[in-house]
């Protein structure tokens, strides 16, 4: 092809590219004007896009992976307001209003019709079908009506009992009651512990540390293996749909685990339907509520909801425990305070604490809450404005009130990380101070489980398991950061940064938490 004949093609491509860029810029300009050019970062990629979250932070280009937690309240301080507007240009130009104002978030959380979930974000969670997390409006009401009663004190009592069994099994069967136990990464143990509790309290299926990996007749994997694989590798399953070839052994194994778990859950459902034994696990209670509802949920709906409870509860609790024990190891004075409190509350006759004793462990609850404040599992909650409205905010420099336009269709981010690090509500927010949760504290500025009608149903489940594990382990062991030669010269700040390093995922994830557990005399 001659140089002369290439010119029209080059001109056409150049014209198309220029038109596309100008259109993106024009759409971005319109988006900025729709929120009255409200202050906030401007970037090529949105913080809701895959690429925008996959790249490292690049000014004016990409927010970067885990940006909501890394920035915390910094961007709000930079733009002098607890409500900011990010404008992005690709893949779709638009504005996202981020809110770290407790009063506004409380109102918005209860105004579910005005700020519904951005369902597109949750589509990947519909693995077995729709569920309470990935639905909205009437369909969400239907799922909640059937699922909510399953989370009862009877189930929480079961959670406590299963947690006690799991922790005792860890200490006796895995650690062999050793005086000193070195753990290269607590995340592995925390994930297993949470999974064993979920197995018992959600499925009514006891799993222990010493379980043999036996495969039930008609199955290709054991129930334990299937649960571990599904819980650990759910992200792989989401990004490799069934129509995509299974190029690697890992992908094929994950797909098999999901198929096997579905078969196991179906078998358990059938077993519950013909069984007469009274049970209080989530699956049984969900089935009972469903059988009494005139608009009964399908089998896929039951499986989808139980799956969501398993994945959300397993990962969220395990990660929170890692951060909690890391903080206690970094701050020995706080650990001593907690141990003293636990010792004063534990039964004097040497018996194990029960669920009825849970409310006595106020210092443990304070540590748990402070951990959730500093490391919220979900750092931002994506919503969308269902109507033309305004949201209120506060100027940080002078405390004056402001209103920000929020047109219909505008993306809205409930910035949990920003709220939890807002110094207006939390003095010295970067410091680990569990005692801030004793006495009066700003409850509207603490949203690790969200708020309003869509608040997490499993909150008490998570609190029960977390309080039991922290209490039992701190009562028996002193927790320290594992000494490693390559880090012998690091400062406290360097150690803190290393041990508390996070990465993004379905929930905020610790990278590596190396600890030593020393048995108390």
TrEMBL record:
SUPFAM superfamilies cross-referenced by the UniProt entry: Cytochrome P450
Where in or outside the cell?
Membrane
Pfam families cross-referenced by the UniProt entry = p450
Pathways involved: Secondary metabolite biosynthesis; terpenoid biosynthesis
MF terms from GO for this chain are: heme binding; iron ion binding; monooxygenase activity; oxidoreductase activity, acting on paired donors, with incorporation or reduction of molecular oxygen
What keywords sit in the KW lines?
A: Heme, Iron, Membrane, Metal-binding, Monooxygenase, Oxidoreductase, Transmembrane, Transmembrane helix
* The protein's name in its UniProt record: Cytochrome P450
């Amino acid at each position: 092809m001659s140089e002369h004949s290439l010119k029209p093609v080059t001109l056409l491509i150049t014209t198309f590219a220029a038109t596309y860029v100008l259109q993106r810029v024009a759409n971005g300009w319109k988006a900025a004007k729709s929120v009255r050019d409200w202050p906030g970062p401007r970037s090529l990629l949105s913080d809701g896009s895959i690429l925008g979250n996959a790249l490292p932070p690049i000014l004016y280009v990409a927010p970067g992976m885990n940006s909501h937690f890394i920035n915390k309240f910094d961007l709000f301080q930079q733009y002098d307001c607890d409500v900011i507007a990010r404008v992005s240009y690709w893949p779709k130009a638009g504005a996202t209003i981020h809110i770290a104002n407790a009063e506004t978030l409380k109102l918005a959380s209860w105004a579910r019709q005005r700020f519904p979930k951005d369902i597109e974000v949750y589509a990947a969670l519909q693995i077995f079908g729709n569920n309470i997390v990935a639905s909205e409006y009437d369909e969400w009401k239907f799922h909640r009506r059937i699922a909510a009663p399953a989370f009862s004190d009877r189930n929480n009592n079961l959670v406590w009992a299963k947690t006690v069994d799991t922790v005792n099994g860890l200490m006796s069967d895995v650690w062999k009651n050793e005086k000193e136990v070195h753990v290269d990464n607590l995340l592995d143990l925390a994930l297993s512990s949470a999974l064993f509790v979920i197995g018992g309290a959600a499925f009514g299926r006891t799993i222990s540390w010493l379980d043999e990996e036996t495969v039930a007749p008609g199955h290709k994997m054991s129930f334990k293996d299937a649960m571990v694989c599904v819980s650990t590798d759910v992200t792989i399953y989401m990004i490799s749909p069934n129509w995509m070839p299974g190029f690697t052994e890992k992908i094929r194994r994950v797909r098999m685990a999901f198929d096997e778990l579905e078969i196991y859950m179906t078998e358990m459902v059938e077993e519950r339907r013909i069984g007469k034994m009274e049970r209080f696990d989530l699956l049984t209670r969900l089935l009972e509520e469903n059988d009494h509802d005139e608009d009964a949920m399908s089998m896929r709906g039951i499986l989808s909801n139980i799956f969501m409870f398993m994945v959300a509860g397993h990962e969220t609790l395990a990660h929170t425990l890692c951060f909690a024990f890391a903080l206690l190891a970094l701050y020995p004075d706080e650990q001593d305070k907690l141990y003293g409190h636990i010792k004063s509350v534990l039964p004097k006759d040497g018996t194990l604490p029960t669920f009825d004793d849970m409310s006595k462990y106020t210092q443990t609850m304070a540590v748990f809450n402070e951990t959730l404040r500093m490391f919220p599992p979900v750092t931002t909650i994506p919503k969308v404005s269902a109507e033309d409205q305004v949201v209120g905010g506060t100027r940080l420099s002078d405390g004056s009130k402001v209103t920000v336009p929020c047109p219909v269709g505008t993306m809205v981010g409930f910035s949990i990380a920003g709220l939890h690090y807002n110094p207006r509500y939390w003095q010295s927010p970067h410091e680990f101070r569990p005692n801030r949760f004793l006495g009066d504290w700003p409850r509207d500025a603490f949203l690790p489980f969200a708020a309003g009608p869509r608040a997490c149903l499993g909150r008490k489940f998570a609190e029960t398991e977390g309080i039991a594990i922290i209490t039992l382990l701190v009562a028996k062991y002193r927790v320290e950061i594992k000494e490693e030669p390559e880090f012998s010269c690091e400062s406290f700040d360097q150690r803190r940064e290393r041990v508390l390093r996070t990465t993004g995922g379905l929930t905020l994830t610790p990278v590596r938490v190396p600890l030593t557990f020393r048995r108390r005399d």
